[in-house]
Amino acid sequence: MQRNLDEVIRAVPMDMSDNLEQISGPKPRSLDSGHNTPRTSPGPSHLENHVDGTHEGPHSPTDQELRENWQGGNSMPGFSLSQADSQGDPNDDYCACCHNGGDVLCCDRCPRVFHLQCHIPELSAVPSGSFVCTICEGDNPVTVDETNGGKRKAPGGLTDQEIKVCERVLLELFCHPSSVPFQEPVNRVQVPNYYKIISQPMDFTQIRFKLQRRNHNHYHSIKGFLFDVRQVFVNCAIYNKAGSEVGKAGKIVRALFESIVERLMPQYLSFVKENPTPCFSALQQKIDPEVSTLDETEATSPKRPRLDE
């Protein structure tokens, strides 16, 4: 009996690992063993690359990179200076501003004709007597110099006389045949990257609306008005190639703008001749909080103007 018991005890394995392995399954092999390395799931870095897609496809430039590397484009495809000049001849058939036909009103002092809604200021009805356009009313220069701290702010914004001078400036710009690319907002469909390059879009139509007292973004200073007009030409120089049709038109109309300012408000000539850098807007807001900037809340344009204040 004792002998049989000793044989049974000797038959029991002293190392239970083999038995446990059979019960719980094989243990994972060591990575530095001679066996094949098991497949592992991607680590955090692999997951990050997979999620953000940095390992797939070409790098998409940011708006800032796009601006820094911009080589110039065309903000109004199809525009031609020669065609614009042919449409700009004064006659009794086409509106001096939009260059379209229809029911137009003739100025009694010049060959220009206007649609009631195109003239600046807009006309609600045909005048009962003679009609003289804003350009033919004569020069009425601004005498107050805002740049030297002169008193210039009316309770409701610009004074009547200041509004008339600004309207005169803007109407002359509208009437120039080369101003067509700057009269309306740049078309987002035809030029989809324009608003990625230009961070402060502006056009003559937006400026016209802001000259109206009923507009909640009505100008509070002449400098605010001039800032926006100048911004039109700054944007043109940034986006368009210098030798392009639109680029050359910008130079022509800006020269006209500066000549009008020199005649009607010479104290602002140095201001309108400045070419601000991209950081100019923030700096100008500190110097003159009433210069205008843009927002996306104005119904009259893809880019809506912010408050002047």
From TrEMBL:
Chief site of localization: nucleus
GO MF entries: zinc ion binding
Comp. bias regions, Polar residues: 33-43
A GO-annotated cellular component: nucleus
Listed Basic and acidic residues bias regions: 47-68
Subcellular location: Nucleus
Residue ranges occupied by any Bromo domain in the UniProt entry: 174-247
InterPro entries reported for this sequence: Bromodomain, Bromodomain-like_sf, Zinc_finger_PHD-type_CS, Znf_FYVE_PHD, Znf_PHD, Znf_PHD-finger, Znf_RING/FYVE/PHD
CDD domains associated with the record: PHD_TIF1_like
Protein name listed in UniProt: Uncharacterized protein
Organism from which the protein derives: Lymnaea stagnalis
